[in-house]
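This section describes the prediction task in plain terms. A model, or a person checking by hand, is given the sequence of a single protein chain and must write out its three-dimensional structure as a string of tokens. No templates, partner chains or ligands are provided. The sample shown here is typical of the held-out split.
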Amino acid sequence: MIAMADERPMIAHLLRRTTFGPFPGEVEQFANYATALTTVLGATPVALQPPALGSDDDEKLLTQWWLERVATPGTGLGEKMTWFWHGHFTSGFDKVREARFLWGQHQLLRANALGNFRDLVRGVTIDAAMLQYLDGQTSTGAAPNENYGRELMELFTLGRGSYTEADVRAAAKALAGWTIDDHGKVRFDATRAYSGNLTFLGQTGRFDANRVVDAVCVHPACAPYIAGKIHRFLVGNEPPTTRLAELAQVFRAADLNIRPLVENILDDPSFLASKYQRPRQPVEWLTAAGAVLGKRPDGLDALQRLGQVPFHPPNVGGWGDPARTLTAGPTLLRAATAHELADDTIVSDSADPATAVLARCAIFDPSTTTLGALRSAAAAIGSRRVRATVLYALAVCSPEFVMA
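The expected answer:
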């Protein structure tokens, strides 16, 4: 079934934000936007074989496995939200080093990507990769390490200004005692824990990991902080104050279940109004460009140049504002990568090759500048193969493709 022409840009926008596509021909599979939205929200994740870990190449194998997975059509919204949480609850090979720990964390994020936020935070708090990444496995009640307690509130649940240094110290004591044994299993050692009363976020009493998580999740700052961050990821801008309050209430009313919040965001008119407002992250851009060009590139090399490799965040804050990818350096790197990928690619025999190339890129509403640039290039190049290379390289570097 072919979508009406005026709905194709809407469907493409939905798929850019909720998947790693659109993949060529995917937009045309939907009769209309309403059908596409229903399909996206109800999609079952594609089952793929896990990575075969257990060798000296585990770091590369795990990273490449995920890049292959996001490039597989049909992985959908769950995959995109797994990617979101990977940039939110960050851990990386620079400190964790054990691929099995990062694989375990990845499975945790995947299983809870659209599930319950409280359950997700509980899992992350005593996750082996996180314990190692933020030094929790060495923390004791007598000598508590404050790294995770601080980031739990500042980056993961509440945001700055919602807690005090006394809360950080109390959280560190309450979370002490979790260790990783010689077999890679997470254990709680009561002899290393803190056994006294604590005051944390206005509550006083005995605290363990579960009570710490409960306290941050019921804090007034939690629901708007997480709702705002997911809104920025899916919509591309900061929600107005009234809209943020509405989203926070949706999230609270759903007992911090993530799916109802995401559904509310995607079903709001502001989502469609945000077309081409959020820069594609390098992983998003490379995956989509590779699909358009019929290539499965060695993503590790390209993404190292572009500054975003899965399981290698630059710091605990993740990859930061995607707007940084629009500066001169990343733009030139993206252009070089695009030309390399587009070399010897699909040749279009269309009477209007510029429009055909843009349609394969799921760009059905190009600006007059973009369409004019591609048509000028097509008219100036005689060789069919060279023309295709240039047109595709230009298309995947166009504002409509670089922005989601």
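For orientation: Residues 233 and 244 are 14 Å apart (CA to CA).
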